[in-house]
Specification:
Layout (H helix, E strand, L loop, with lengths): L1 E6 L2 E6 L5 H14 L8 H19 L4 H7 L14 H30 L11 H13 L2 H19 L13 H8 L12 H18 L4 H5 L4 H23 L6
Antiparallel strand pairs: 1-2
Helix pairs in contact: 1-2, 1-4, 2-3, 2-4, 3-4, 5-6, 6-10, 7-8, 8-10
Length: 254
């Protein structure tokens, strides 16, 4: 979101970063809880509360979103007021407005939930360092970037842990060649206890590199199953890191 401010005659643009859906959902749930149960005693804190809700809605959905506009226009007082309007009318209107506002918060939470998927991602199912690297992308639903960053992160870690293996020209090994070297039968970092296991892990690493080293983020984002695909890549990358830690944590280089 971009806003313009004028200082003298010179305009300045201020860019406001978008709030991540998961963080916005959490904040909206907490704000809704502040006015539960609804009560007329909340009038004293209502101005602050509405402003804070608006801040989250605008940061997460954008100021032009229908839910944001409807929330901003919620009325908390009776439509027509005279000197004979009873206090009960003010109370009823305030509680009605509060109810409408909470309904719109629920709608915003639902809309934001669609962006991150219905099923929560279990962060404990993945390698901790890898998860920390892609967590923000997962929360934002940037599935193409989740896949590509997983491939980059895993290859970089394998290379670093194995001591930066080189090819004959002295350049760092990359992609298929890296996994072929690191997981070879003669390598200290090979995986598996038997020859067939070691071969399987070696081919798994080589396949991971060949299939994902040039991940096209835009192509993945167009897939109907982009989320499932990205989490599959994340799981496979995590598996390689987890097995390396399990078998060789004592010799992995930082």
């Amino acid at each position: 979101m971009v806003s313009r401010l004028s200082v003298g005659r010179r305009p300045y643009c201020l860019t406001m970063s978008r709030m991540r859906p998961v963080a916005a959902i959490r904040a909206l749930e907490e704000l809704k809880a502040e006015v539960q149960p609804p009560s007329t005693s909340l009038r004293s804190s209502h101005t602050s509360w509405k402003a804070r809700v608006m801040a989250v809605l605008v940061r997460s959905l954008g100021k032009d979103h229908d839910i944001v506009k409807r929330f901003e226009s919620v009325r908390y007082g009776p439509g027509i007021v005279t000197d004979r309007t009873p206090q009960s009318s003010f109370d009823q209107a305030f509680l009605g407005g509060l109810s409408n506002a909470c309904g719109l918060i629920d709608a915003a939470i639902y809309a934001l939930g669609l962006e991150v998927g219905d099923e929560p991602v279990d962060e404990h199912a993945y390698d901790p360092e890898l998860w920390t690297h892609v967590k923000g992308l997962v929360e934002d639903g940037e599935w193409g970037k989740v896949a590509s960053q997983t491939a980059i992160f895993v290859e970089n870690h394998v290379r670093t842990w194995a001591g930066e293996p080189k090819d004959r020209s002295g350049s760092n090994l990359v992609g298929k060649a890296l996994y072929l070297e690191v997981f070879s039968d003669s390598s200290d970092y090979r995986l598996g206890a038997q020859s067939s296991e070691r071969e399987g892990w070696r081919y798994l690493g080589m396949g991971f590199a060949q299939a994902l080293s040039n991940v096209d983020r835009h192509r993945i984002q167009k897939r109907d199953d982009a989320r499932r695909y990205a989490l599959g890549v994340l799981g496979l990358g995590s598996l390689l890191l987890t097995q390396l830690r399990y078998e060789h944590e004592d010799i992995l280089k930082s």
